[in-house]
């Protein structure tokens, strides 16, 4: 287990990817080998990394302490280049404080790590993803035509995409934030990566990924597009992003990728054994609840709605096996504790969960 990580529920850190298996499965069945080949290789690589993560967890992952003399509240970023191999972390190409180089992918990764660090520090007084100044490491140019990005419990990894369906995975800043937020969940509630708790795990990453994008752009809830992965899909794809928090199920509808399967309410909840019980699919329900609460409150979503969600994630009462109703109940309690009984914030949270069909206990 990663030293310093919560042992809530005794669950190991998980290998989390931004592109769900059902999307890659669909691509792998394409008749065009230019589409199917990279998807199949990505699925194989993801399976290997997932198994490798379990083994290193069992054997004990190395601690990653802040460097000597590190100032609290300052990022410690390092970007590595895998040079299209799979050895991690790769060759160091940019350290904290160094000027941008010619590689735009390296520069985007560095900036995304910084934006994520800044949101958690400025909005929630959290020093890095573990709350204790954890260095932020990222590897770019991972493998060849690798159609994913992942958090492996210790660092971020980005593929370049195949250029046919997916572009460079450092392009959307919310993808960077999404994966790093898995680290925040790992160090706090450590939500089990299966079924409803797994969907909550994915949703927390979408929520904070969206907030990082909005914070960086200075957008209000009304101005934001509420898309996850906008700019990631290649021009040939009929779609605008991987997921939509505003309108789950509408992010893409493509001949090759199929149709976005996310439900917006419990009426559409998908029961499946694939994708760890549909963690990337059913996350649309809590995603939509957050969107509804944030837009009802208006202003900057990270300030009130985001604060409530952060309070629940880090408050110690969210169990590893929490269901949607458990999480909804805790958000109501957090809104009441922070803003008061009968507050606008509490009303917005309760109405949002009611609209998506999740009852508070």
Shape: globular
Instruction: Write down the overall mean pLDDT.
Output: 92
Lateral arrangement of strands in the main beta sheet: 1-5-6-4-2-3
Radius of gyration over C-alpha positions, nearest whole angstrom: 19 Å
The count of helical stretches stands at 10
Please outline the major beta sheet.
6 strands, mixed
Residue stretches low in confidence (pLDDT < 50, at least 5 long) are 1-11, 58-63
Structural class: alpha+beta
Element string (H = helix, E = strand): EHHEEHEEEHHEEEEHHHHH
| Percent in strands | 5-15%
Helix content: 40-55%
**Secondary structure: number of strands:** 10
The CA-CA distance between the termini, in Å, is 33 Å
What does this structure look like?
- By secondary structure, the chain is α+β, with helices and mostly antiparallel strands.
- It has ten helices and ten strands.
- A hairpin with a 3-residue loop joins strand 9 and strand 10.
- The model is unreliable at 1-11 and 58-63 (pLDDT under 50).
Topology:
Elements: E1 16-17, H1 21-28, H2 33-59, E2 77-81, E3 91-95, H3 104-124, E4 136-140, E5 149-151, E6 156-158, H4 173-187, H5 195-217, E7 227-228, E8 243-244, E9 253-254, E10 258-259, H6 275-278, H7 284-297, H8 305-314, H9 324-339, H10 344-355
Parallel strand pairs: 2-4, 4-6
Antiparallel strand pairs: 1-5, 2-3, 5-6, 7-8, 9-10
């Amino acid at each position: 287990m990663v030293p310093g990580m919560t042992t809530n529920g005794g669950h190991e850190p998980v290998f989390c990817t931004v592109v769900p298996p059902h999307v890659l499965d669909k691509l792998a069945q394409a008749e065009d080998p230019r589409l199917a080949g990279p998807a199949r290789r990505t699925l194989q690589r993801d399976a290997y990394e997932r198994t490798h993560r379990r083994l290193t967890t069992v054997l004990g992952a190395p601690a990653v302490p802040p460097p000597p003399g590190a100032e609290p509240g300052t990022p410690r970023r390092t970007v590595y280049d895998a040079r299209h191999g799979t050895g991690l972390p790769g060759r160091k190409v940019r350290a904290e404080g160094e000027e941008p180089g010619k590689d735009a992918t390296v520069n985007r990764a560095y900036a995304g790590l910084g934006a994520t660090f800044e949101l958690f520090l400025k909005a929630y007084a959290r020093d890095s993803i573990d709350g204790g100044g954890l260095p932020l490491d990222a590897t770019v140019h991972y493998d060849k035509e690798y159609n994913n990005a992942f958090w492996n419990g210790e660092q971020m990894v980005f593929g370049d995409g195949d250029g046919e369906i997916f572009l460079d995975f450092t392009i959307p800043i919310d993808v960077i934030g999404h994966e790093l937020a898995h680290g925040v969940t790992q160090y706090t509630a450590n939500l089990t990566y299966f079924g409803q708790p797994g969907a909550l795990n994915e949703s927390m990453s979408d929520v904070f990924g969206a907030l990082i994008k909005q914070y960086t752009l200075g957008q209000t809830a009304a101005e934001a597009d509420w898309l996850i992965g906008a700019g990631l899909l290649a021009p040939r794809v009929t779609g605008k992003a991987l997921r939509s928090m505003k309108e789950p199920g509408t992010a893409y509808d493509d001949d090759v990728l199929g149709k976005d399967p996310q439900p917006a309410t419990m009426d559409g909840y998908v029961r499946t054994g694939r994708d760890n019980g549909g963690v990337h699919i059913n996350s649309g329900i809590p995603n939509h609840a957050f969107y509804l609460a944030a837009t009802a409150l208006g202003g900057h979503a990270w300030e009130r709605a985001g604060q409530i969600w952060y309070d629940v994630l880090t408050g110690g009462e969210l169990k590893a096996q929490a269901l949607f109703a458990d999480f909804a109940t805790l958000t109501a309690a957090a809104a009441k504790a922070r803003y008061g009984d009968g507050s606008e914030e509490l009303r917005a949270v309760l109405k949002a969960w009611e609209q998506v069909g999740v009852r508070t206990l």
